[in-house]
Structure formats: C-alpha cells, structure tokens
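Sanity check

After download, print the first record. It should look like this:
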Amino acid sequence: MAKILVFTSPAKGHLFPVVPVLGELVARGHAVTVLTLPGSEASLRALGIAVRALPQALAEDTLHDWGKSRVGALHAALRSLTERIPHEIAALRDAVAEEQPDALLIDTTTAGAQTWAAASGLPWATWSPMLLPIPSRDVPPFGLGLTPLRGPLGRVRDAAVARMSNLLWDSVLPRLNAARREHGLSPLRHTVDYLAQSPAILHFTAPPFDDVRTDWPTAVHQLGPGLWAPPAQAPEWLTRVRRPLAVVTCSTEFQDDGALAQTALDALADSDLYTVVTAGALDPAGFRVPANARVVSYLPHDLLLSRAAVVVSHGGMGITQKALAAGVPVCVVPFGRDQAEVARRVVSSGAGTRLSSRGLRAAALRDAVDGARVCRAGAGRIAAAFAAAGGPLRGADVLEQHFAITPAVRV
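Expected structure tokens:
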C-alpha cells in the first residue's frame, strides 16, 4: 500500500475530474489524502478518500480575470496563479510533514506546488482537467482558438502568434523562476514550459476532441474526461418536466457570464425545449425566467444530460466534455480563459456550434442552438472515443507504474 497526497487548485472543476482515479487507487488498497477546497469532506470520505482543507489564503482566492480585455484577463489570471506560489509551497510542505506520503499528485495549474514537488525528492505526477497549452508543431499556439493552418502561411501565422503569446505568459516568468531557484531547480525559458516539467501527466481528455500531436510529450497520458460529481437525487420539479432539456451553464468560477444564461432563457422561451440554467457563481435570483425554464444555483449535470437535446455553455472543459461523453451536442459561447480553444474543438470535431460573446443576441443564439442540435452524430463519435480512452482504470495503472507501487487489493 502506498500513501498518496493530492494537491488541488481552489476550483471544483479541477477536483472533480481526478476523483474517479483517486477512488480507483483507494479500491486497490492505497491511502489517498486530498488537499482541496473546504466542503469536500463528506462526498470524498464516502469514497475512502481523506481530506485536508486548503488554507484560507488559497481557498478564497479567485482568478480576478473577469470584465477585462482578452490580454488583461490573461495577465490577471497569470498574476493570480503566480501570487499563489508561496502559499501553495507552504501548504504542501506542511501537509507532507504531517502526512509523510510516498508520492505526490499535483494539479497542473498549481505552479508553487509543482515547484515544491519537483524539489522534494518524492515521486510525483500531475493531472490536467483542461486542454494543455504545451507548444506543438502540429497545433496553433494556445489561447485564441485558431484553426490549424498548414503550409507557409500557417507557419508564419503561428510563429507570430507564439511570439506574442510568450510575451504575455512570460510577464510572470521572473516570479516563477525565483521560486524554482530558491528550491534548487533550473530556471525555465518560458512560463508555459512548467506545464511539461512533470515526469507523468494525466490528461483528462482524448482525441478526436483534442488534437493529435506527433510531438506530444511521452509523459502525457490522455484518459478521456473525469465524469464524477457528488451523488444527488433529482429534484421533484425535474421529474414533472416532459420536454427535452436545454442545459445552460455558467462558470463556477466567477467571470460575469450571466448574459449567456439570460439570452438563452429569452431565445428558447418559445421553443420545444425546457431550459435548465445552472447559475454557477452567479445569483440564480437575478434572471427573468420564462414559463418553460428553471434557474438553479447548482445541480449535478448527470441528472440532466440523459434528457438533454443540447447544452449551451460558456465552454468550460468540465461541462463540455460531460455533455459530449453523454452524446449531447454543445453550443459554446466563450467568454475567456481556455474557452475559445474548447469552442474550436467542439466545432472542428463536428459536435456542436460556436457563437462569439460579442454576437450574443437571442436570434443568433437560437440559430446556434438549432445548428448544434443537428450535431448529435458528432457528439456520439466523441462519446465513443472518450469511452475507449481508458478512464480511471488506466489513470490508476499509470500512477502505480510511475510511482513504482503495487496494489494491495483489487476490487
């Protein structure tokens, strides 16, 4: 039996995807402790996973990237992530001192925890619930949702965008490299390089949703999405709904995307669908709700997707991949972060449509939703590929082999 300590960022969208792998490790006889958001204890302990709460300085931190230009939002998010570095290092160091683990599993977005893990001498690995912006000759530079363009014109475009992207990302490189030097690690050339430093990376997606790369690092293991959510019962009002559903989601980490939900409510008010909005970080009482709709703060999406005709989303990886894993097409309206990249993959895989947030009007959104609804075959192809990618069983196998541990018990 091995003791594995897991460190997450303060976001449920980063914790939930890795839970099935952690549950599989527990079923194999390993002891797993997760350092994560407070409030996760009951659902994780039911799976045999021990929980330590992140310190307040991390648990209450957000990306502070909403309401800004695309460049300003990226700067804000990068500053937030690197300002967490000393807090992550202290939290992980203290947890290791108390737990005495045999191995570490670290959220890929926690640069401080990765830095400490790399210097610790312990076996360590990372996981990514999001698309990985590791540079590749086969894929355009990450961030703008660019479609691959072959030939000389594509190479010129991608080189220019890569230079601009590095300038933005590298604004926080001095802070990142200072932490690395302090812990005896060599400095990085570019900020984005830290994403490929881990000796093993569990990546919770798979082709054909994600792009195939001939130069993908051998450390990356694509498993398909993690689909876990805390168990819940369907509310009584949902059992009375007879129409197919339009599931509309806002981000669980605030980014001021309420216009998406309100526009969807308005656009679908006279449709054959019953609209269910999960408001995420927004106040569910702040919307005008037509008769064929309901707005809730949170409801596990697996209760909705089996009856969904379409998902209308900001393009978060969690809900997008859950929808596609259920064979439900998606209409994506990206607001920022990695959502343009998610939207591009939805469209390029034939699994849905994309509408710019600048063009967010009821008529345009209705057209985009109608266009997505005819993409069920493409969503079904993605669902089949996700199911074949290996999932939590393969993820646990990878970690056991990488950590050089053997299962005590297989259930």
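If your output differs, re-run the checksum step. Summary of this record's structure: Residues 151-169 form the longest helix (19 residues).
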